[in-house]
Amino acid sequence: MDQDNMTVKKEEIPITIPTTSTTTPTPKKKSIYFKIGVGLLVVSMLSWLIPVIAPFTPLPTKEKAMIITGAIIFAEVLFWVGTLLVGKEMAKKFKSYFLPKKRSQK
């Protein structure tokens, strides 16, 4: 038998894949206000360390009280300005990373 006569031709079946649902959207570039707002939120959270550290410094009590009060006011102002820049939902998400959730009572 001749092997050249035994070859079978395969038919090619075209396959179409829908592209509308499988495409990934291009990410939007964050605005400069958003980036500044996130930076302010980070600095705000870090500035809450000052009232914790200040009592252990060798400063007079009056200066410690002024530093702690100023740091708390500074942190709150930065947080609210950052919240205005990034948006309410993003600020809640950011704050939830740093603050523990309330435990539900049984």
Keywords:
106 residues, mainly alpha, 4 helices, 54% helix, 0% strand
Put the structure in a nutshell:
The chain has 106 residues and is an all-alpha fold. It has helices at residues 32-47, 50-53, 61-86, 88-98. Helix 1 (32-47) runs antiparallel to helix 3 (61-86) and helix 3 crosses helix 4 (88-98).
**What is the share of helical residues?**
40-55%
Q: Count of helices?
A: 4
Largest sheet: none
C-alpha geometry: rod-shaped
* Average residue-wise pLDDT: 79
Strand content: under 5%
User: End-to-end distance, in Å?
Assistant: 84 Å
Helix-strand pattern:
HHHH
Structural class: mainly alpha
Write down how many β-strands occur, each being a DSSP E stretch of 2 or more residues.
0
Name the poorly predicted regions.
none
Structure description:
The protein has four helices and no strands. It has helices at 32-47, 50-53, 61-86, 88-98. It is rod-shaped.
Chain-wise SSE layout:
Elements: H1 32-47, H2 50-53, H3 61-86, H4 88-98
Helix pairs in contact: 1-3, 3-4
